[in-house]
Amino acid sequence: MSAQADVQLRDFKSLFSLNGKVAVVTGGSRGLGLHAASGLLQAGCSKVFITSRKAKACEEACEALNALPCNGKAISIPADLAKLGEVERLVKEVEKHTDKVDILFANAGATWGAPFDEHPENAFQKVMDLNVKSVFVCSQKFAPLLRKAGTVEDPSRIVITASIAGIGIGTLGANATFGYSASKAAVLHLARNLAAELGPQNILTTSIAPGFFPTKMASGLMEMTGGVKALADATPNKRLGMPEDIAGTVVYLCSRAGSHVNGGHIVLDGGSVVATSKL
């Protein structure tokens, strides 16, 4: 067979397009969620619903997103996903604007640092509830809208934010993050289970495992572990994560370019897990 006959890549120009897609971004008012939402809108999404616990933060995020040079619209729907019934309310609010959802970016999360002997039981529970249970409940309650949008040729997507703390060992000592590390390991495996369950229903599930990104949630821990420069110097590619790293990865996973990825995860840490594991 000739090389010319082998070249069957169709419509490369649209390979990373999300034209007309509808997305829901939990924990979308700042940090990684806001980076992802920016990428989703600029890749062509017609609607991106931003949800987080604080109404003002959601509104400010949507104002910034709607100032971007794109045709889509960011819509604020505040919700505290750790509370019983809030996910169901979120779904009903989304349904006021659309009858289908193409993309669920499950990014809402929390952390807690404390020495092993002093780590509060309720703090561990709080982290597990938001980082694991709410991801499952969001996936479950949004599944009907995701099924409506998905086809074999163009499946819907669930993308879950995990962490390299769920792959290697998280922070130990005075600011140990036992609950956070356990929760991120749990959602990596939850994504695999959801991929097997929902894949035949035209919903693909993947996860990302970021390392340190300069975000509000990570800033305190970053200072305690040496600061931005020290952490960057300790990373094989000599920098921390940037907004483009999250936005580009999420757009890839949610576009036609990522339509054969299901159950896997992408590590976004510049190689820090690899560097640690060789010691």
Would you summarize the structure shown here?
The chain is α/β, with parallel strands linked by helices. It is built from ten helices and seven strands. Helix content is 43%, strand content 13%.
Task: Describe the structure in your own words.
- The structure is a single chain.
- The model has no long low-confidence stretch (mean pLDDT 90).
- The chain has one domain (17-277): Rossmann fold (3-Layer(aba) Sandwich), CATH 3.40.50.720.
- With 279 residues, it is an alpha/beta fold.
- Strands 3-2-1-4-5-6-7 form a seven-stranded parallel β-sheet, sandwiched between helices.
- Helix 5 (121-149) links the parallel strand 4 (103-106) and strand 5.
- The protein is globular and about 50 Å long.
- The protein contains ten helices and seven strands.
- It has helices at 3-6, 31-42, 55-65, 86-95, 121-149, 178-198, 216-224, 227-233, 243-254, 272-277; strands at 22-26, 47-51, 73-76, 103-106, 156-161, 203-210, 265-268.
Task: Give me some keywords for this one.
single chain; 279 residues; alpha/beta; Rossmann fold; 7-stranded parallel sheet; 10 helices; 7 strands; 43% helix; NAD(P)-bd_dom_sf; Sec_Metab_Biosynth_SDR; NADP; oxidoreductase; SDR_fam
